[in-house]
Amino acid sequence: MDKEKSETIIYRNEIKIQESTQYFAIKNLIRDMGIPTNLLGYKYIVEAIIYMINSKSTLFLNEVYIKVAANNRTSYECVEAAIRKAIKKAVIQKEKELKERLNLPEDAKVSNSVFLNAAKEIVLSTISDV
To answer: Any residues with CB less than 8 A from the CB of 18 and at least 6 apart, and which?
Structure first.
């Protein structure tokens, strides 16, 4: 990416995120990991990682779900289930590649927590390399 966009996305609860290298890195990573973009979980995963990266403190996963749910006028349970469904679909489609990308052993389960935290770390390392 030669140019960094500066367009601002304003969410319903007034959280602002710059459409920048970070935003596009997250979207590209999630797509590359096999999360279908047509699933609602894709959108929630992107938002969750943004919250996790931009948080000044360590967030528990339920806090992230609550923030994403409030932003999308839905429930915590719907966010958790949509993310789980999206991750499950990616595991079904490309389990070996996904586990290699997340640095997980072959017999490990790819939970929401494991996926989101690993994706966050990959994005942070990608951005720091730029």
So the answer is: 5, 6, 7, 8
Alpha-carbon span 46 to 95, nearest angstrom: 20
In whole angstroms, give the CA distance from residue 57 to residue 65: 15
Q: Would strands 8-10 and 16-18 be described as parallel, antiparallel, or unpaired?
A: antiparallel
pTM greater than 0.70 (yes/no) = yes
Give strand pairing partners of 18: 8
**What's the rounded mean pLDDT across residues 24-50?**
93
Stretch (H or E) spanning 3: none
pLDDT confidence tier of residue 43, bands split at 50, 70 and 90: very high
Domain range 8-129, CATH class: mainly alpha
CA–CA separation, 79 vs 64, rounded Å? 10
Q: Where are the domains of the chain?
A: 8-129
